[in-house]
Structures are given as C-alpha cells and as structure tokens.
Amino acid sequence: MAATIRRVAPLARIRQIALSSGWLLVFLISLLPILGIVVGLWPPEHITFADIEAFLGYQGLSASVFMTLFSAIFSTLISLYIAFMVYSQYHLSRRLQSFEKYLAPLLSLPHLAIALGLVFLFSDGSVFFIDSGLPRKGLSTLIIAIVIKEVPFFLLIFSAIGRQLPIKYWLLQGQALGYQDYRCWWFLVFPALLKQSRLALLAATAYTLSAVDVSLLVGPNIPELFAVSVYRWQTSFAAGDQALAFWANALLLILLAVSVLILYGHEKLAHAGCKALATTGSRFQIGKINPVFKAWLPMLGLLTTMMVLVFALWSLGFNWHSDSFAVTQLTTRLWQDEWLFFALPLQNSWLIGVFSGLLGVASALLALELQRQKGKYWPDYYWLLAIILPQLSMVLGWQIMHIWSQGGYHSGWIVLSHLPFTFAYAYLVLKGPFQSVEPRYELLAASFGYSPWQSWWQVRFRLLLPAIFTAFAIAFSVSIAQYIPTLMLGAGRVPTITTEAVAIGSGSQQDLIALYVLLQSILPFMAFFVAALLARRFRGSMGGQDARDY
Amino acid sequence: MLEIINCQIEAKTWRITLPDIDVQKGELLVITGPSGIGKSTLLHWLLGNIPQHVAIKGQIILSGINITHLAIEQRRVGLLMQDVYLFPHLNVQDNICFALPKNPQLSSKKPPRSSKKQRRAAAMNMLEQINLEHLATRYPQNLSGGERSRVGLIRALANQPQVMLLDEPFAALDPSTREQMGAWAFQQLAEQNIPSVMVSHDVEDIPASAKQICLADYYQASEQK
Fold first, then answer.
1. Is A388 helix (H, G, I), strand (E, B) or coil?
2. In chain A, fewer beta carbons within 10 Å around the N or the C end?
3. Which of B73, B139, B141 sits opposite A446 (nearest CB)?
4. Of the residues A283, A317, A351, which one is the last residue of a structural domain?
5. Do the domain assignments include residue B55?
6. What is the interface pTM, i.e. ipTM, of the complex?
7. How close does chain B come to A369, measured CA to CA in Å?
8. Where are the alpha helices (DSSP H) in chain B?
9. What CATH number has the domain bearing residue A297?
10. What angle do CA A389, A392, A397 make, to 5 degrees?
11. What domain count does chain B have?
C-alpha cells in the first residue's frame, strides 16, 4: 500500500505542475494585450498637460476623429444588419442551410485585398471604363471594403450562436401565433442574436478604429483617418510628435469607450424597437427586399473572384486599353523579375503564419481545457482582449518592451506578436464546438478503460478536428494580414507579403500592386482550401447538433 | 458478482438507505422508482462518475474487489444509455475496436499485444455473430435506432466488462423494436454471464426473471432543521 502511495504522489505532483504551468502560459498570452496597453500608454517623462492643447489644436483633428468613429460604427452596424438579413434568408431555406462552407473563401480574403480590389474594379481608370464614382481614396471606399469583409465574419458568428439557440422552435411558435417568417426573425431572433454578438461587434469596431494599412491605402487623405495620424506620430522623431502620439493613443482608448457606449445604446434601442413593434403587432415591410440578401453571398463570391482575376491579369501584364483580348499577350515577366524580391517575404509570411497559427490554436485549446477541468469558463471579454483593444496602442507597448529586452529583430518576435491575435480568433472559433462536445463520449471512453489523457486525444480532439482545421485557417489568415505588429516589432527588417504589399500599394505601379495583393490573398485562400479538404476527410462533430441525433 | 453494501443516497431534503444488494453472474437487477428519485444517480455512482447534487456513501464490491474508490477507467464497468453515443468520427467496426480491451484474448496463442488487424477481425467477428457484418463500414449517423442499440450493446460487451449498467437503454426505440431488442439484449448478457443493473421506469421493459428494487420503498424525507 505504502509503495502505491509513493508511486501516486509524484504523479499527482507532476499533474499539478503541468496544470499550473498550463495556466501560467495561457495567462501570459492573454495578459499580453493589457500589458501592451499599459506600457504603451505609460506617460513618458516629458509629457505635460500643456501638450494636450497642442494635440487638440492639431489641424483637422476633429474631422479626422469624427470620420474614424463614424466609419467604424457605421460599417460595423451596416455589416451586422446585412449579415442578419443574409443569415435569416439562408436559415429559412433548408437547401441553403449549409452556407457555412461558402464562407471560408470569402473570409479568407484580407481587408487590404478587398479594398484594393474595389479600387481596381470600380475606381477611375478601372477595368470597366465607366466612372462608378467610387474614389481611389475616400471614406466610401473604405466603408464598402470593410462591410464586404465583415459580413462573412458576422455570418460565421451568427451560425455559431444560432447553433446554440432554439431558433427553429421560436420561429414555429411565432408562426403558430400568426406572424410571418420575417417578422418572427426581427421580433424573436434578432434581439437574442444581437445580445450575443456584442463581442463580435466590438471587435469589428475596434479593428476599423485602429486599422492602419487599409486606412492608409484607401482611406481619405485630407484629413487622414485618425489611425494613420497616430501611427505617423508614433514613428516620428520630430519634436513634439511623441507627445502627440501619447495623447492620440489616449484618445484612441477613449474612442473605444465611446464605441462601447454607442454599441450598447444601439442594442438598447434595437431591443426597444423590436419590443415595441412586437407588442403593437405593427407591420413593416422589410420582407420585400429579401431577394437582395439571398443573392448576397453568390454576388460576393462573384465579386471576390473578379478581384482575384483582375489582380492576376494585371500581374500578367494584360493590356487594359488594347482592343483585342489575346491570351498570348499575357506574360509572366513581372513574376520572374519580382521572384527575387517576393521569395523572402513570402517565406516569412508563410512560416510566421504557420507557427503563430499553430501556437494560437494550441493555446486556445489549452485555455478551454483548463477552464473545463476547473468547471468554470471565464468571460470571453478577457480572452478576446487582443481583438477588442486598439491594436496601435497595444503594439506600441510591445515595441517598447521589445526594445527594453534588446532581443534583436527576428521572426520569432513577430510570431510572438501575432500570437495574441491568432489565439483570440482561434478561441472565438473553437469555444462553441469545444463546449458542445457531448461529455458522455468521454464518460464512455473512460468506461472502456481509457485514461483521461487518452480519451481527450482519441475522442474530444478527434471530434473537434474539423473545427480545429477551420480555427487554424482563420488564425493563419489573421497572421498573414497583420501589418502593424509585423512592422513595429520587426522594425521593418522582417518583410512579409503584407508589409511589402502596403509599401508597394502606396506607390503607383498598378501591376506590381496587383502581384503583391494577389500573393497576400492566395496564402489564406490556400489555408482555407486545405482546411476544408482535411475537415471533410476527418469526420467529427462541429457543433454537437449532429451528434445529438445518435 | 456485484455487491452493493451500506449504500445511502443523501440530498438536502431526503435520504434513501438501501439494503445490501448482490447481483450474481448473468443476473439482472432492475432499479425502479418515480423520476427524480436518484435511479440514474445510483447508476452513475456505480460507474464511478461522482454525482454533484447528492452525496452517496457505501461500498461497491465487484468480483470480491472493492472498487468504490477506483477511477472509472479502472473499474471495467460497461454502460449502455438511452442514446447509445456511438462515436460519430468512427465507423461501426472502429467503434467496437475502440472498446476492445488493450490485450484481449483474441486467440488461444495469447499474443503479447493484439495487432490492429487482429482487433478489427475480432470486431468483425462480433458483428457476424449478430448478423450485422454489413454495417461494419457504416457511420453511426447512417444507422437506424434499432441498429444503433445493437451496435451499442455489442460495443459495450466488446470491452469484456465485469458488470453492465443499463440506463433506460431502450426508451428511445419504438414499441415493437423495443420488445425485440430487450429480449435479445438480456439473452446476450445472460449468455456472457455478466451481472447487470438496469434503470427503468417502464414496467414492460422488465423481464420476469429479473430482480427488482424500487427506490421509493426506501425513501425518507429528512427532518427539517
């Protein structure tokens, strides 16, 4: 007996140590965003309140701030409503219910590629030779690009939430009481979806508030969007610019708080509206514009295909002003010439994406498993801090810490700087499927003699595999699209396709821009494609919905 | 043989004190009682899945060994639930392979460790015995309710359990399938000489030869403090 106890004690101890180091690891990753904000917003010694005056008096500041806030809130809410309409259309039609699989390629296109794709397709001198009125740089272009990108994101969120809500029965109840489909959607489903999408709304808003790359390339010029100014001040050595950067970062945080308030106000208002309409039995005829939303995803698919095609044609030297189209005109000369320049960035992007994606997915799984063992899940706000806090201030803090540590500049640091983002997105994608894995499967495995560790690998992990592949594809594309962390922590010495694309994108050589944006789009697309293939190969239960049937 | 000694289930407002019970090899014990009285809780306690809302005391002796404090995976207790929970990522044959013990005595030669091929052959053999070999490569979502129940029982038996627990195993089946399935399952368990404990609130499910215990007979409301 004594021998058994002695044998068990070290085992329990090893388990305890493993658990503690697991917690420590996920805490470190999830605390990086707060640490970044605190360090980034730590007032430098020479900052005085007198600097506020200089900052507030900066020419065009109020217009720039207003435009930024407006574009962030407006594009987020428009995307929300469009996504809701699209979701309702697809949910109602049995045939189209598996729309999720069409989302992946749409989700994979980076913001930058969509924004430049719009410009290539519709701005002056575009392929259609008609003036669509869409400016090369302007608020409208930026907002449209962001809406195109966020709608699939919200659809992904809705389909995850929808799996856990008894929407079918709500609709049935509503219809039994004599309401039409689309009214039931607005009265019964919308309030519930809205409440549960808070974090996604905040994440989308926070992204637009501090997105530098897209704002720089397609946002308005005079005044420029706030994020561009903040970045310019942050990286400037001119006298007084550091003080401006400090107050600008503080304002960015205030803007985020204001966004939270506005989004909260919008939610309250929408609730009240839905309630008022529901209780008065009012009729509103939103159902008539439904066909537009049914066509949304196919149209978006067509649009993105056209974007990719146009990029490809440009990069192959297609002559837009020639009268006759001939495939023989196409040449791979630009690709051959550029290969020398894009080979390294391509390799960097790929490796950083794979490592930060894998680490992000693994640590998200670790965080979920540790919480499951504890029997209590922490609020999502905590785990998703990286995507709801302004990126610029956060990365500034990391940059300062990086300089303190004198760690040099290599891809390892970039992987680390992408990790909080890949972690947050992987967590967002994996949480639903993870929680809905039927615990009785593991109970059964235990009854067959499998240890908890064995049954975790052979049952839980295997059931989650399709979700894990999707999570990896999303984490990978998040990493590919990172601009600010790559640039600031790599000090420009670790070029990736995205940093090159932004640099070249602010130039004027269309064919070169097309080539780099095409490369930036291909990487995530490949990841999604492979993930979809693998997910089909390995059966599993994404949401537990299928699993409940047997 | 399974023995349950000094068992007491205690909740905030009530308590059940059971008499000592023994279930011989091939014998079936049926636990009945109104819903919410703790039938499934008792079953899960036997399995080793510690209930959260009530406290259970007592000893479980299986083939002379006290297993009360062993982890689920060390008890060799089989479980068949109303939903069979066949693993959705494995086909029927692999579901059975998953349940086969690490070193099953597949042949008289006693190999040091059974190979994958041997395990699959053993699973196929079990399916053949109940004429379900045509289901081997199918996935659970493509089986009928009755087929799932059969495969579920075969999978549980493949693990060579020392005792089998059945939690309203046929409640989800339609009446005619249920009767057929019940007769077949009890015959299988009796043939393999496995003591079984079943929870049921449907009197029709209970075979005539089974031992019965009704939890309501031992129910006491606690004195309010």
1. helix
2. N
3. B73
4. A317
5. yes
6. 0.83
7. 19
8. 39-47, 72-75, 92-99, 116-129, 145-158, 175-191
9. 1.10.3720.10
10. 90
11. 1
